[in-house]
Design brief:
The complex is a heterodimer of chains A (about 280) and B (about 575). In chain A, about 75% of the residues lie in helices and about 0% in strands. Chain A is mostly helical and about 280 residues long. Chain A starts with a helix and ends with a helix. In chain B, strands 15-16-17-13-18-19-22-21 form an 8-stranded mixed sheet, with helices on both faces. The chains are: A mainly alpha (about 280), B alpha/beta (about 575).
Chain lengths: ~280, ~575
Amino acid sequence: MRVLKALLKHPSGRIGAAIIVLYLVAAGLGALGLTPHNALKQFPIDRLKPPSPSYWMGTDLLGRDTFSRLMLGIGQSLVVAFASVLGASVAGSIIGLFAAWWGGLWDSVLMRLTDVLLAFPAILLALLIIAIVGPGTYTSIAAIAIVYTPIFARVVRGPALSLKRRDFVDAARTFGSSQGYILTRHLLLNLVAPLTVQVTLALAWALLTEAGLSFLGLGTQPPAPSLGLMLADSKNLMQHAPWLMLFPGLTVMLGILGFNLTGDALRDILDPRTKARAA
Amino acid sequence: MTVPLLSVEGLKVGFGADPAANVVVKGVSFALGAGETLAIVGESGSGKSVTALSINRLVDFGGGRIVGGRIGLVRADGSLLDLTAADEKTLTGVRGRDIGMIFQEPMTSLNPVLTVGAQIEEAFFLSQGQRGETAAKAARQALDRVRIPDAARRLTQYPHQLSGGMRQRVMIAMALASNPRLLIADEPTTALDVTVQAQIMALLAELKRETGTAMIFITHDIGLVAGIADRILVMQQGEAVEQGTLEAVLDAPQHPYTRHLLQAVPHFTGGKSVRGDGKRTTAVAPIVSVDDLVVRFPVRRRLFGPADAVHAVDGVGFDLVPGETLAIVGESGSGKSTTARALLGLVRAQRGAIETHRTAGGRPIQMVFQDPFASLNPRLDVAALLAEPAIAAGRRVDAALRERMKALLARVGLPEDALPRYAHQFSGGQRQRLCIARALMLNPDVVVLDEAVSALDVSVQQRVLELLVDLQREFSLAYLFISHDMAVVERIAHRVAVMYAGQIVEIGAAAAVLSQPRHPYTQRLIAAVPAIDRRHQHFALDVTPVPSLVRPGGWEPPAAHWQEIGADHRVRLESPP
């Protein structure tokens, strides 16, 4: 609650939060079918109409309303982004925590594995995974989750290593507290702040990666609308119907901006060193 | 009438966006003649450091503003400079040239990636423009002046290769490079061991005589100033409540706060203030017995044979009976904390028996750590902090447990509404009470107090000690009290064990050990304790190096031979007959 209030006071955090809320509303309405037009139905008469009072963002080659399709596309992208980041943060936190807690050989093995994953460019690694398993929504969720897991493992391991040596962890050991209790209450609870920031930033990357995979035809499969697919469809019609490229492109950009602004604001708010200045 | 070297009149210093509204030094005035030493004494937050930092205007870099008063300094050429009005360019010339400064923490005030020699030479270059061979020679002489043996070799070393005392000597050498007319020492010995502290104090006193430098010595320890100061200024909450000559302030304090400081600070009295209660009788069986405890940390692996190891604890043995306090004293690195941690299983002992005789269930030994800020999880409220030992023991958090929490909170003197609050909402003393309450949640037999009052201000320290004594009587607790502070040990211990280089060298009844120390190390330790009645005392400079605790693999210490001095007092013989 306190963090939310501070976020709304933060100049760029306010903008970021507004964008995220806007996207969530659009996705929600799209999921309920409350779009201006039927996003999947084709109207051959209204092919490639430029933006007008009826079609706010124009129509595509098959006469489908771009605005309605964007609403559904945002929903699709957000689902993939949230699901994959959830997976990556949970898996990454577990790996990072255990590497820090056990140390020694476990730490070396787990961290070298994450190094290997980090050595690949994100999109290339996702492509590799999809090439093995085959395209689809679930595959892209899994692929993006795997790609971003090492980043979470790194983010958790560093602070966990220093928390592990703090006196309150020693105190917990003298009480005979279980490992599970120490890991969750003493380590994880103190990692909420860096994890929150990282989750927000990762959502931005995940949004972009999802769009990229769909653009390449490896993410969401047609006829389901998705931001990446809409961009891919527009590329041959760039000169005749620039709105087909403009609006999905702007939507992707704005979404990433929203998550990045929120992430930066959260970092300012949750960092104890900047907390004093904000207060 | 001659003009004093430094005259401070009505100094006011404020902090924050509106310095005039947030004043922490509220009109302090004093004068300091050439070659005089002024000690500024006060607890943390009294404004003593801010006052001193205002003189060389370093306070500007900490967000402070001088909002009133004037500071007059007579410079080397005889001109009088008002430091409150001086511009930054003039101040850069004053700092280091007219005013030298020594800080509390010698490790952080030296640059870790430059050799000691390079840093001293830089000080000579900046103050006197010397470079090359001249500066190197001056640096060597400077180290000789602060009595660092083997100066030529030390110059090529890096700060981490020197001990804390050596580093502080290097800092003093740098501060003296420009022959400053005024030296400001801000708690220069607080981070050091007591025997090292005595050495640094002796050095400062000698240098003062040699160079005629005036000195401002800031400390929280009024007992420390007796050996060095000419005049004393006592500060409380930003105001100078009393000032006068050393004798006047110490022997006839006028202000109630000065009297409070003199009484609140436990002064070491050589075994005359030990507790009279809880005398040990043979009838009571020990609750914990430790025998031949050995803790080693491997440092260098060898291809064949066992690894070299740091012998942190080597063959330590003692026992504790209910209601008794055994104090372990010694300097940093003597193994006293490692002994405690081994007792609680926080480090693994290579050898030795730790026997506890407990009738009830649960863990018989609990611990209170030194730093009450680090030993409480900042993200848990008090209820969760206190519940942890019970949860660890497999108990449910129910109404009975909450009742016990409330009772214990009241017992240690914390408000009952503390349960939903977080650690950062409490002061240091309150947090330490919280740690004590947490340690008592499951009725332990023994509480290990590892420097548990060292981080607290003197008056807070006094009250926590009283609480500890009350709790001990009430619950028949045995304390293992680990401390470097002999005066505190004298007040709380029934028995004292002196540790040196991983071994107990002397153990026995507190009165006997503290009044008639037999082991040479115990004697050195006790002689180094600052005391109010040791005026202008000259400590002999002693540069005995501390023995290395790193031993080759498989090394075993020679068997200990003990000499019985009295009924409960034995000392280890260094050269067996």
